[in-house]
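Protein data:
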Amino acid sequence: MGVESLLAILIVGAIAGWLAGKIMRGGGFGLLGNIVMGIVGAFVAGLILPRVGLNIGGGFIGSIINATIGAVIVIFLIRLVKKA
């Protein structure tokens, strides 16, 4: 993995985590938390979205959208578990 790929992953993760925090009415997770949430969200979206037949597309914007959807799902599940 090159430096460019690693930088792209970090940028997509940060943007997706921040967007997910805004969508879910959270205060955000800080820079590191947003990056982690975005990367985990991208992983979750990669598992779930193709199985439900949703294909956003590729590229930088598509990656951000996919990771944001996954991060929103992760935040929802975390909040659901915290309430229980």
